[in-house]
Amino acid sequence: MKTANDFPPLDAIARRNHRIAVWSGQLFLVGMLLGWGILAGFLTPPPSPSLPTSEVIAFFAEGGVIQRLGLSIALIGVGGLIPMAAVIGDQLRRMEGGRSIWADTQLVCSGLLVWLLSQAFILFAVAAFRADRDPQLIQLIYDAGWLTFIAPVSMVVIWQAAVGAAILSDRNPTPVMPRWLGYLSFWAALLSAPGFIAILFHEGPFAWNGLFSLWIPIAIYVVWWICLTGQLLRNISAEAEIAAT
Amino acid sequence: MNTSITTRTPLAVEDGVWIVVVGELSIFTLFFTTYLYYRAFSPELYETSQATLNIGIGALNTLILLASSFSVASATRVLQISNNYKSAFRLLVAALLCGAAFVILKVFEYGSAFEAGVNVLTNEFFMFYFMLTGIHLMHLLVGMTLLAAMALQLRIVLRGKGEISQTFGGFATSFWHMLDIVWIVLFPLLYLLP
Q: What is A77-137 written as a DSSP string?
């Protein structure tokens, strides 16, 4: 089996490319939080599922250009996840060796997540695009957008669990990533799982704007993401030292 | 080094396990605080709904989980002081059977609630009742999977192939005790609170 030591370390150009990929991944977070969350107004505060139809229409009608700008930023930024996921996969392959199932799993999950989130942002953009259409249709698009965003949890859960599984089963003498990050990934997967229950409730802590369906999964996601980004950048720099020896 | 010591494999709980255990306990504390917060607004609704719960099944499930934790702790102890993988394996199977009994009783409890025309959307109390016990149950299934994997490892060791992972065993058993602690708080909050 190949181990981390068997893979040739990255040369200077490869290290630069890997760093670019990791930083492009940050566009994903910026697009989500700044674009979708703040500019488009979906987190300030998140509109409730029990909002009367008239207020749903007002939400899109009054969102104006800023809302569509925010959604555009989200739509552009979300793709930044893909190069970042390639770097995660590269590090996971160092842990797993050549026959790397967790690296492949996380890559597929990231790709599908990008597609899925784009779908949710497009639905919101469709509602904003012609906010004067039949109120019932606006309501439908609003529900469809939110549930597309929040309910299909398996992509995130399996993604985080796959990263955790790879870190915790790393057999290299010097682990590629610290084991606590593996446990953190596993915990993040557990916390992301309850998002699907948002399909049940129109209000309360389990609804799509509630503490347990929205805020906790987002919070743990951001914590996990920052820890992972820091570790990837450290690992890329560490390869410079390996290459120098 | 003494060979009997090198072949022994006491479980090791890594530092990182605490991220999961302390993290889960804090999130469940947040669940409980939210429940108590909502409860304070309409105590009567909660009291009348709570009165329909079957305290007997809840109490029985508490005992079952305590027994399973005792089994898991005994298995840990056995691995710490001896090479008796067979007895550790049996203790884990006993804990898994307890876990299965818990799940069956829970399904029965949910079933009789549905028959009585009560479900997760009935009112706020039942939203919390089904969600808190449901999320705990989901975690319990994850915990059972971890314990089952550990038991399988022991079986492979008993057949003379492979070895058990100390760190995985440490994680699986800590996770199980965490589930027990959560239930011990959850049970009085949902079933007994005056």
A: HGGGHHHHHHHHHHHHHHHH-SS-HHHHHHHHHHHHHHHHHHHHHHHHHHHHHTTTS-HHH
Residue numbers in A near B120 (CB within 8 A): 200
Cβ-Cβ contacts under 8 Å for B61 (sequence gap 6 or more): B102, B105, B106, B183, B187
Gap from A134 CA to chain B (nearest CA, Å): 29
Q: What tokens were used for B183?
A: 């239930």
Asked if the C-beta of A175 comes within 8 angstroms of chain B's C-beta atoms, the answer is no
What are φ and ψ of residue A16, in 5° steps? -65, -45
Rounded to an integer, what distance in angstroms lies between the CA atom of residue A28 and that of residue A163? 18
Nearest chain B residue to A190 by CA: give it.
B139
Measured in angstroms, the CA of A184 and the nearest CA of chain B are apart by: 6
- pLDDT (tens digit per residue) in B120-135: 999 999 999 999 999 9
- A180, B16: Cβ pair inside 8 Å? yes
Give B102→chain A minimum CA distance, Å: 20
Backbone angles phi and psi of A40, in degrees to 5: -80, -10
Instruction: Match 């040369």 to its residue by tokens.
Output: A11
The answer for residues whose C-beta is within 8 angstroms of residue B8's C-beta and 6 or more apart is B79, B82, B83
Convert the pLDDT of each residue in B153-176 to its tens digit: 999 989 988 888 889 999 999 999
pTM above 0.90, yes or no: yes
User: Do B94 and B128 form a contact (C-beta atoms < 8 A)?
Assistant: no
CB–CB contact A205 B34 (8 Å): yes
Answer whether A184 touches B (CB < 8 Å).
yes
- Interface predicted TM-score of the whole assembly (ipTM), two decimals: 0.89
Mutate to test the interface with B, among A153, A157, A179 (most CBs of B within 10 A): A179
List, in order, residues 6 or more apart from B10 with CB less than 8 Å away: B79, B80, B166
What residues have CB less than 8 Å from A165, skipping those under 6 apart?
A102, A182, A186
